[in-house]
Amino acid sequence: MAALDIVMPQLGETVTEGTVTAWHKKVGDRVARDETLFDVATDKVDTEVPAPAEGVITAILVEAGATVPVGTKLAIIDASSGAQSQSVSGSTPLPNPPPQGGREVRKSMEGSPLPLRERDRERGSRHQDSKGRPLSPAVRKLAKERGIDPGKMDGTGAGGRVTRKDLEERAPTAPAAGDERIPFSRIRKLTAEHMVRSKATSPHVLQAVEAEFHRVDRARAAHGEAWREREGFTLTYLPFVARAACLAIADFPRINASVDGDTLVVHRAIHLGIAVDLGLDGLVVPVIRDAAAKSAPALARAIHDLAARARKNQLGADDYAGGTYTISNSGSFGTLITAPIINQPQVAVLSTDGVKKKPVVVEGSDGDTIAIRPVGIIAQSFDHRAIDGAYSAAFLRRVKEIVETRDWIADFAQQE
Amino acid sequence: MAELTYRDAVAAGIAQEMERDERVVFLGEDVAGAGGVFKSTVGLLEKFGPRRVKDTPISEQAILGAAMGAAMTGLRPIAEIMFSDFLAVCWDMVANEIAKTRYMSAGQLACPLVIRTANGAGSRFGAQHSQSVENWAMSVPGLKVVAPSTPADAKGLLAAAVRDPDPVVVFEHKSLYPVKGEVPDGEHVDKLGTARILRQGGDCTIIALALMVPRALEAAAKLEAEHGIKATVVDVRSLVPLDTQTILTEVSRTGRLFTVEENPRLCGWGAEIASIAAEECFYDLDAPILRITTPHVPLPSADALEDATIPSVSRIVETISRNMG
Amino acid sequence: MAEGARTKARSKTGANDDIGEATRLALWRSQFLIREAEKRAYDLFLQNLVKGTSHLSLGQEAIAAGFATAQRKDDWTFATYRGHAHTLARGAPIEGVLGELMGRDCGLMHGKGGSMHLTSAANNMMGSYAIVGAHLPIAMGAAWSAQYRGTDQVSVCFFGDGTTNIGAFHEALNMAAVWKLPVIFVCENNLYMEYTPIGQVTAVPNPAADRASAYGLDSIIVDGNDADAVFRIARDAVARARRGEGPSLIEAKTYRHSGHSRADPGKYRPDSEVKEWLARDPIPFYRKRLADFGIAEGKMRAIEDEIRAAVDAATETCKASPTPSLDLIERDVWADGGAKWRN
Fold this sequence. Notes:
The structure holds 3 protein chains of 3 kinds. Chain A is α+β, with helices and mostly antiparallel strands. Chain A has 10 helices and 18 strands. In chain A, helix 6 (about 240-250) packs across helix 7 (about 295-310) and helix 6 (about 240-250) packs across helix 9 (about 390-405). Mean pLDDT of chain A is about 85; it is low at about 80-115. By secondary structure, chain C is of the alpha/beta class. At the B-C interface, helix 3, helix 4 and helix 5 of B face strand 2, helix 5 and helix 6 of C.
């Protein structure tokens, strides 16, 4: 058995012609015996026509939509392969026998609709690309967002239509020679999603104060070496700023809050998120729970521990959950100022940047003098739905005050 | 973990709740002495006695009325309506009385009761003993509705239903009674209003209920093996409350939604979910939402006819594979 | 056959018989309250302050009063949509009843249920039911609960003559009898099933009492317009139920003064029939009996004045009460007070 002709059947005594309404297979497809090959419509009945034998479709001679006389050759099957036709697995204990081949199918039989392309063509869908291929809602949205014309692409969908997946996997611009395409890692994707959503959700306002870190530096000088020896890592500015933020939150509790619809949820505990850079692989924000109860040394340890474990991918979902306020630290890179993006659903995020020696004016009872002090900008992005500038500014002023005037040496002397 | 049949899991669930709470009582036709016409309540009479496990006359309105009156006055009854088709006989009790009494009394009266009933086709019993009518219950405000697909869920959702202070209709599937599955040992209580993702795949999302769940899973396996289509399968489990978030998340992820529903076409449960998805996931949809349902006919009795009427694995595979374009 | 022909006044000073003066005054208070409140409800309808439909118990007061007085506080009452009388008789506040009819926030159910669903669970008035017959199995279920829990509470269920032909009536009677439940089924036979004489659509002359034997129960008929007669029957039936002797089916013959519902002027009833029954109006009848028993006019007048004042005060309260807040629309579908069906 080799080439098998498939012809337009006569589906009634007086029927002289039929219309192939849809092909269920294309050239090159394998078809099983009794598997539906095409749909036909006549003036008496609409039906599905099964393949008479197993084989590969080598030619389709009449396109879908065409009306031809009974007996017209429609397709050719190469039936020379010897594989068994498929049978439905009987290994389930449930009643589930296979459907009978060649049965008459009423058009209204639910669950057997025409493929997408056919239906849209029938109804003259308004949403088509320049090549007449249908555009789904997802594709229309993505195409608009990315400024892509689907008509200029080849899609993987039925009839070559551009699918959502095609757009999602496509580069935004035509690649130039030498370009490297780096797919987003999972963390990158999640970060990207979160950042876009955060900006879309909260109207961000940036405020900053310039703080003098000389008392902090004195503490670092006094205890730094012993600390490094004992703990194995350097004491940076971050734990000091973190402690100052926690203390300031006590006076300005609405900074430590979340937005839930029309409600501001002010959190009692401070679960402090520390942004940890995973070195080009994205950003994660593990959370120090009950940070308010922790001293500056305890915060220093917690920050170091979380960052280290985050970089080694040793943290779990619980370590990232429940944050109420976040600090982002770019200081080691010496940046001037950063406008951080709020970690939803929190209402504010703090950024500490580079601390560097600058000349500052020191007011004295004998008049002003110039001194050299380590100075850095502490900035906060806040959600203007939830709080206003005055409140945020007062909070920042308090943070600055604590950084500049607290007895940090004493904090670290206690070896907590 | 133990392997139990779905029917034994039902009995175990009732027993678990009756042991835990003296207020739980159980009534229905042939449920006590005979252990139920589907043998789903075997052993309960022996264990708890005729005061707590009661055979009733053939009086559906009285069965549910008694359950309601008892629930309003301190008990936690489980009432069996033998075939879900018979809910039509006492539909006043279900829809007008039990569902509405808390609301009409502004919270003065409560109906913490469970109606459990055998739903669905496959037994060749004909049109009046084979219907899937979970959509009837879904459409009445004031009723919670679940339809377990596994023995574990049959026990766990029944237990959750008994503990729920609102009226819950539990649609067991008569064709699932002999199916075996792992059921956790000890106390097992599930949560109403939660769907379960049974399989994850990025190409399309199939949502199904009760008997259609194992069929959807089998279809998904075939779709992957034979067509390279990777489907997510979600067992809806609870129609009211509806776990819309789980379902919509999976629809958004794949952009394609297929429902597999045993109820007849019009106003099936999938129509509601399709509507919600069209509204809330519109811009994630890459293809029209398709419902695979029983056609809008009463169910024929002959085995060949019945099997070809309710959605089969091959119809699911066929429909989905032809609509991935 | 029954106890319960109409009790005739025996002596002018015989108030302290098996019923006693105190109970009689209670029976009077209850009937008079119902009469005044129902008259007020009708007036308020004419002023378009009572909305929707209302089914008044004018003429049927003795039944509600007789049973309520015989019941214990923790016994339950279930009624039909003609339930204002029973709700008041169990002690629900007048402004709660009138307010519900007027769709105001002070209504017993804040306007959620309306006239046909009056409920006062605090007084164990477990609802008025609009679907004919539905509450009979429910009342039976409450009785089952009492039997199960070993309390000796009794469930009393009121319904009309038309109910005796609906399926739920038969299912409830049968199950109550088989399980020997402490439930009393009281048929208020006012001779008309809505607009049709009950005799035209029922196979037996006494629609409830003649069905009793089908359920192994005694046939009991009582003059529903004589509160003393009703009270005696009620007391005995309740006592029997409390002793675990099972259900009773009682047919109380009565008549309603107005139409089936407010909208019905009742023109389908022959004038002579209406006239005959109005002459047996339970209210003047009972007042005369109390007087014949030697109860002082002043005592009765005091009760009546008090009730009239209370009905007036309640009317003013209702008129001043706001319409219910719109957020009640999505409250109390579920036990958590809300209406959420999805997350």
